[in-house]
Design a protein that fits this description.
CATH superfamily of the largest domain: HUPs
Shape: elongated
Order of helices and strands: EEEHEHHHEEHEEHEHEEEHHEHHHHHHEE
Number of domains: 3
Radius of gyration: 28 Å
Strand order of the largest sheet: 4-3-9-10
CATH class of the largest domain: Alpha Beta
Distance between the termini: 42 Å
Number of helices: 15
Strand content: 5-15%
Largest sheet: 4 strands, parallel
CATH architecture of the largest domain: 3-Layer(aba) Sandwich
Structural class: alpha/beta
CATH topology of the largest domain: Rossmann fold
Length: about 500
RNA sequence: GGCGGCAUAGCCAAGUGGUAAGGCCGAGGUCUGCAAAACCUCUAUCCCCAGUUCGAAUCUGGGUGCCGCCUCCA
């Protein structure tokens, strides 16, 4: 089954056909680093991280580029307010953003280009557009002439006449059409500026993404992504200037827009002031919870933010994590019985229903998960497949005590498969299951001591010394360690 | 005013014309020395109206409500 993806440009799902066989090129609009990043910024990053991991899982070589807009009115305004240097500000917040992405387990993009480092490419592109008659110069500013691009509006479905009628701001009289947009802005005193054929100035907002994506991915790259609020005018303008420039549409083959994060039915945004900084959020929630929260709805749907939603996500995520831990524990107990005889998956008539059912559940989960991801990256549905497997694993655990030693041995390969599915699909692709960080000596000691306490408590239980057993459990509980008894032994968890 | 999108149980959320995945919460039950965890059972006819169809949450038309964009925004 081929991957199907919804393309904003055509408004329907299309089969994915990469420009270059076996390779996928992706450009995601990044942030303007002038303030702290919030969850809304993490949404596309997490979504694209899952998409790129899935594409890699499918065997594609992925090249992902995400820009930083490090020259912008807001950064300049901020610099003028604080007296700080423009580039110090953008540098600091860009680093903070990357730090948060690392904490969220988002794989780094292959490149994070910054406009300030790409001025020659920008100028080259604008020059060409002026030469071709798609742009005009007025007093050191350069504007794109949208009437020169007949297909203007094809991404957002806008009509030129309506746009003109709906203009809300006072229109710059020097522009030929109200919606003509700046490719180059002449410098005002005190602003960062570069020399250009039109005098000192700086790039407009839209041109950078065109210049950098064309430079680093080439024309006709596979995916162009970003938040739904960028469809118009940003991406519309990118298409206009890029396709006018290259003369060879399409600029990007598939446009992918994610739903926006909302707070109390309003978009979370810096300008509305209704945001929680990512750094604060990360202090309160494990990365896996935040990813779970974002990925548990479809990427194109708007996402409602609230503490309750995150708490709900935490409980769901913990259940999944508990099952994964359960599974490890179960596998360890079974492995103690020695290597399996045969593969356990098809031991003609010897297998017990419990094992067969688990084996079927593993296969079913894998199949459903992959089918869900192939269908427009339906992470919500993919997660549901993981939960179904979780239930099967837990059910099996309940039955495990009744199995014979031989059957237990047979279950080992199936359990290994189940663990692999969780790791590969939930871990490698969705990034929900964190690989245990290499444990320090102190951690190892702690674990050994806990094992010892559990063992001591077990001896007490064997002698029906419930007082001692409960004392150990209660006191450990006070220290944040939970004990759970099962027929296969006691598990502790922090 | 224009453009785009969304409306599924108490909450969140999938859903490709054939009698509604999954999660959270809640109720009951099983297991357990107790506890925890887990498992089982229960909780919707899909905003409204009309139409197409043997059959629609899924298609068409009309309402209603909400969101995004048209100004910087992931």
């Amino acid at each position: 089954m081929a991957i199907q993806i919804y393309n904003t440009l055509t408004r329907k799902k299309e089969p994915f056909v990469p420009r270059d066989p076996g390779q996928v090129s992706i450009y995601v609009c990044g942030i303007t680093p002038y303030d702290q990043s919030h969850l809304g910024h993490a949404v596309p990053s997490i979504i694209w991280d899952a998409i790129r991991r899935f594409l890699e899982f499918k065997g594609y070589k992925v090249r992902l580029i995400q820009n930083f807009t490090d020259i912008d009115d807001k950064i300049i305004a901020r610099a003028q307010d604080t007296g700080e240097d423009v580039f110090e500000i953008s540098q600091r917040y860009a680093e903070e953003y990357l730090g948060a992405m690392d904490a969220l387990g988002v794989k780094r993009a292959d490149l994070y280009p910054r406009v300030s480092q790409e001025i020659p490419a920008v100028i080259e592109m604008i020059e060409e557009l002026v030469e071709k008659g798609n742009a005009y110069v007025v007093d050191g500013d350069v504007y794109f002439d949208i009437t020169s691009f007949p297909e203007y509006g094809k991404l957002s479905g806008q009509q030129l006449e309506e746009l003109e009628a709906g203009t809300r701001l006072a229109v710059d009289e020097r522009k030929r059409h109200p919606m003509d947009f700046a490719l180059w802005k002449s410098a005002k005193p005190g602003e960062p500026a570069w020399d250009s054929p039109w005098g000192k100035g700086r790039p407009g907002w839209h041109i950078e993404c065109s210049a950098m994506s064309l430079k680093y991915l080439g024309n006709g790259f596979d995916f162009h992504g970003g938040g739904g609020d960028l469809v118009f005018p940003h991406h519309e303008n990118e298409i206009a200037q890029s396709e006018a420039y290259t003369g060879e549409p399409p600029f990007a083959r598939c446009w992918v827009h994610n739903g926006l994060l909302q707070v109390k039915d309003e978009k979370m945004s810096k300008s509305l002031g209704n945001f929680t900084p990512l750094t604060d959020l990360l202090a309160e929630y494990p990365a896996g919870v935040i990813r779970f929260y974002v990925l548990s709805s479809h990427y194109r749907s708007p996402l409602q933010y609230s503490e309750e939603k995150l708490e709900e996500a935490r409980r769901g995520w913990e259940r999944l994590m508990d099952t994964v831990e359960n599974l490890k524990h179960l596998l360890t107990s079974m492995e103690k019985l020695g290597a399996p005889e045969g593969d356990g998956l098809s031991p003609d008539g010897v297998e017990t229903p419990a094992i067969r059912q688990l084996a079927e559940a593993v296969e079913s989960a894998r199949t459903k998960f992959i089918a869900a991801m192939e269908d427009d990256f339906n992470t919500a549905s993919a997660i549901a497949a993981l939960f179904e497997l979780a239930r099967s694993v837990n059910t099996f655990q309940g039955q495990a005590a009744d199995l014979t030693d031989g059957e237990r041995r047979q279950s080992v390969p199936v359990l290994r498969e189940a663990a692999a599915v969780f790791q590969q699909l939930g871990g490698d692709i969705l990034g929900l299951i964190e690989a245990k960080s290499s444990s320090s000596a102190a951690q190892e000691l702690t674990e050994a001591l806990l094992d010892l306490l559990v063992e001591v408590r077990q001896r007490a239980r064997d002698q029906k010394d419930w007082a001692t057993a409960d004392y150990i459990r209660d006191e450990l509980g006070r220290l944040g360690v939970k004990l759970e008894d099962s027929p296969l032994g006691t598990r502790w968890k922090l």
